[in-house]
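Researcher: Let's do a round of design. I'm pasting the structure tokens now; please hold your answer until I've finished.
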């Protein structure tokens, strides 16, 4: 799974990753207002963020979550595909 690889190899801080199958737990999807999959919800550190759609691009995922990317190929200052929004659709 790409998301697990991203957090294990790119995130250099403690993290908790819960993967929830919304077909098995529709109650959790409803409680979290998840209307599309895949949806990645970052709760901490603040601000919280949501990424909806393709999670295969490591740099877009890290930028969308406002987390530092470790790749030297990322432009200085990083990028924010969300344009400051709390929700990113890829």
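Researcher: That's everything. Go ahead.
Model: Designed sequence:
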């Amino acid at each position: 799974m790409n998301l697990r690889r991203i957090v294990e190899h790119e995130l250099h801080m403690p993290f908790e990753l819960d993967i929830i199958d919304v077909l098995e737990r529709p109650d959790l999807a409803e409680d979290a207002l998840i209307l599309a999959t895949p949806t990645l919800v970052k709760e901490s550190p603040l601000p919280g963020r949501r990424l909806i759609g393709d999670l295969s691009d490591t740099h877009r995922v890290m930028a969308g979550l406002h987390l530092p990317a470790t790749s030297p190929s990322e432009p200085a200052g990083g990028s924010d595909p969300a344009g400051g929004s709390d929700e990113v659709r890829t």
